[in-house]
Amino acid sequence: MYLLYNNKLIIYILLLSVIVFALQINFPVIYIYDQLYLYFDFVLIFLVVLCHRIDEHKVILLSLLFGLGQDFIINIDHIGLLSFLKCTIIFLISITNKYRFIWREIFKFFVLFLLFFIHFFFYYLIVSYSSYYSIIIISLCQSIVCYLLFYMIDNFLNRFNLVWLTILETAYNMKFKKKWI
Question: Structure pTM?
Answer without folding.
Answer: 0.79
